Amino acid sequence: MKIKNSLQPKLTGGALVLAIATSVYGQTAAPADASKTATTPATDSSTAAVAAPKANSFVRLDGNDLIVGSLPPVTFHGFASQGFLDTTSYNYLAANTKGGSFQFNEFGLNASTSPFARTRISAQAFMFDVGNVGNYDIGLDYAVIDYNFADEIGIRAGRIRRPEGIYNSIQDIDLARTSVLLPQGMYDARWRDFSASVDGGSVYGNVGLGKVGSVSYEVYGGMINLSQQGGVAREVQNGLLNTGLSLSSVNDCPLVGGQIWWNTPMDGLRLGVALTEGFNFNIDEAGVLATGQPFPVNTVMLTRHSRLNVPTEHYSVEYVKDKWTFQGEAKFQTLIEKDTTSQNFPNFPAANSTSATHSDSTSVTWYAGAAYEVNHWFQTGAYYTEYYNDLSDLGGGGPKNYQRDLALSFRFDPKPWWIIKVEGHYLNGTALVRDDIHNPSESGNGWFMLALKTTVSF
């Protein structure tokens, strides 16, 4: 976000994404200095007279920098977003979007410093609310120590952002895109606890390949921190509706992965592949079954414990030419059921048993889109995306198995620190609605959604 004041007029679409992505962990020196220059007040004689005592203060503010004595400055930035969603047929992302909902907002405050050469420390506190997910719980989005040995290799440790595809590591940065909502089958706004970060470390770098361009890479491993208020937990709970069962817990699980980008010799064109796998993802469910017998044996306890692996493949292509940005991505995610242990669970092959059922299923999603920067305060863009719950049953299974979305976006930047976005969607299918309580009946008819969002930052 620090590049906003200085670079925004010069960058478009994917180029801006690249700049922000590097600024998040401080790989690029230029944004820090440029932003500082942009936020420094004019140096006329009166300002200089006022500023002189501050320069001699032990603790002082210089733009976004907090300076204490001779220590390296700590740079602060923050943002606040408020959105509005209104749908014609289903309650989507929030519980009451059919009547219009303001349950769509984000807040973040981050700080960074470079205490030693080639070293950068950064962290961000973040809270959000999207329907029944988030609920304004303040969390640590990332907290990273980054050491860069050379362009070819660096290391990060702490709570690191997960690099996957074009937007995963910067999905909270509104400045980085034209649209209000990213394609939800690929970047679900409710799944931040699963997709945004891991507690662990990574190795990254950029290797020149001469006439065939360069390759940037990052490989990482760590633990995913799942929230009982998060999107994964809410989706599991939604699947247990009307069963008398409820979700007991979703446990943190280890995850490894890597992202490679080939920056081709064709200026503005890059191709990416990301592979990840989560191991031993545990889900515990419990409930009470009425037996019809008189008290005290009129009920029995039900439990089920499932253990899953979750491999993901993510493919990306991006081309930036002048004021145009073209993007396309595809993602395949498989749930591999390793084993399930149940006690008195209905419809399970054998009560009080453990089974290796291997009921794998693969979801698939893709999108293609384009954006154009008309001038420094107005951009427009569009994308089309499809999502299917089951790759082996494309087009089958009714509207709950698929969702198609055509989106048209308009972005206005009335001030360097203020963004307003307006977006219309035409959708078909309900696979990503995932809220059966507030959508008791679903059909294959098309429906519309209006999405508005405004963001301020400093």
Strand content: over 45%
Q: What is the H/E order?
A: HHHHEEEEEEEHEEHEEEEEEEEEEE
- Approximate helicity band: 10-25%
C-alpha-based Rg, rounded: 24 Å
Biggest beta sheet summary: 16 strands, antiparallel, barrel
Give the CA-CA distance, first to last residue: 8 Å
Mean pLDDT: 84
Q: Strand order of the main beta sheet, please?
A: 3-4-5-6-7-8-9-11-12-13-14-16-17-18-19-20
**Poorly predicted segments:** 1-24, 26-53
Structural class based on helices, strands and sheet pairing: mainly beta
In total, how many beta strands?
20
Helix count? 6
* Overall morphology: globular
Give your account of this protein's structure.
With 458 residues, the chain is mainly beta. 11% of the residues lie in helices and 52% in strands. The chain is built from six helices and 20 strands. It has helices spanning 4-7, 13-25, 30-39, 45-55, 192-195, 231-239, and strands spanning 59-62, 65-68, 74-87, 104-113, 119-130, 139-150, 153-161, 197-208, 214-224, 245-250, 253-263, 269-290, 299-321, 324-343, 354-355, 361-375, 378-388, 402-415, 418-429, 446-457. Strands 3-4-5-6-7-8-9-11-12-13-14-16-17-18-19-20 form a 16-stranded antiparallel β-barrel. Strand 5 and strand 6 form a beta hairpin. The longest helix is centred in the N-terminal third of the chain and has 13 residues, at 13-25. The protein is globular, with a radius of gyration of 24 Å. The N and C termini lie close together (8 Å). 37% of the residues are buried. Residues 1-24 and 26-53 have low confidence and may be disordered.
